[in-house]
Amino acid sequence: MAQQMVQTINRDPALFYWILFPITVVMILTGVLRHYATILMQSAPKKSDLKALREQRSLLRGINLRNNSAVISTPSFTSRKNYLVPAYKSGAFLKEPENRGKPATNPMTDPAGMEAMMGMMKGNVAMMVPQTLIMSWINAFFSGYIIMKLPFPLTIRFKSMLQSGVATSDLDVRWVSSLSWYFLNLFGLQSVFTFILGNDNAANQMAQQMAQMNPGAAAAGSMFGPGQDPDKMFLAEAENLEVIEHWTVLDGVEKRLLAGVA
């Protein structure tokens, strides 16, 4: 049985000190600077409006009642439902009851929506500008270098990911180019940033990209996103409470207890 030939490339050992180590250090320092720059660009948190807070918590109360109705007795559920459903239908919990029935506010003219968009733009600037500069720096000085070889075998599918900027078809897939090392650091330093800056840090590239792909998740804490009509949400929740068929885990608990100890 013929042995597989091991591919060897004579590399200068100084590549580790002049390419691999500088890219890693620069990426870590850039993440730390991005974290503190994002903190400095953040606006001071505003005090929550009492009416808006009551509007959000009232809807959340109905959702919790519907989701956890099985852990309370039928009279308790009925009394809560009889209180919430008429209040939802009459608009008693609305922050601005005089706007009931009117079209939803345009997010582009809503001050809260504009402030959220401005915060997102600041986050994009803090992420894209350093990333563009580092990418240009690596392309200008380190393009086309093979800097390391992985000690474990990989399939050919990893070739495009590990050898960016090196257009060779016969190179072993375990060799890693300088440009690919940048991308590996870009998405693989989350644990390092968590160790240095803590769990809630602004240096995490993946978290920022996921937030941009799903902007509605950022508004989940406020219950009402831009362009949503609170009155329609209250009416929908009132309908959900009306059609629910209540049952409780306490039904027949005496018989189940006696059957278990008998």
Strand and helix map with partners:
Blueprint: H1 14-41, H2 50-67, H3 74-90, H4 111-141, E1 146-149, H5 159-162, E2 175-177, H6 178-188, H7 190-197, H8 205-213, H9 215-218, H10 230-243, H11 253-261
Antiparallel strand pairs: 1-2
Helix pairs in contact: 1-4, 1-6, 1-7, 2-3, 2-10, 3-10
Structure, described:
- With 262 residues, the protein is an all-alpha fold.
- It has eleven helices and two strands, in the order ααααβαβαααααα.
- It has a two-stranded antiparallel ribbon with strand order 1-2.
- Helix 2 crosses helix 3 (74-90), helix 2 runs parallel beside helix 10 (230-243) and helix 3 (74-90) packs antiparallel against helix 10 (230-243).
Distance between the amino and carboxyl termini: 71 Å
Radius of gyration: 29 Å
What is the total tally of β strands?
2
Total of helices:
11
> Whole-number average pLDDT?
80
Shape: elongated
Helix vs. strand class: mainly alpha
Give me the strand/helix succession: HHHHEHEHHHHHH
Which strand-content bin applies to the residues? under 5%
Query: In percent, how helical is the residue content?
Result: 55-70%
In what order do the strands lie side by side in the largest sheet? 1-2
Main β-sheet description: 2 strands, antiparallel
> Which residue ranges are poorly predicted, with pLDDT under 50 across at least 5 consecutive positions?
215-221
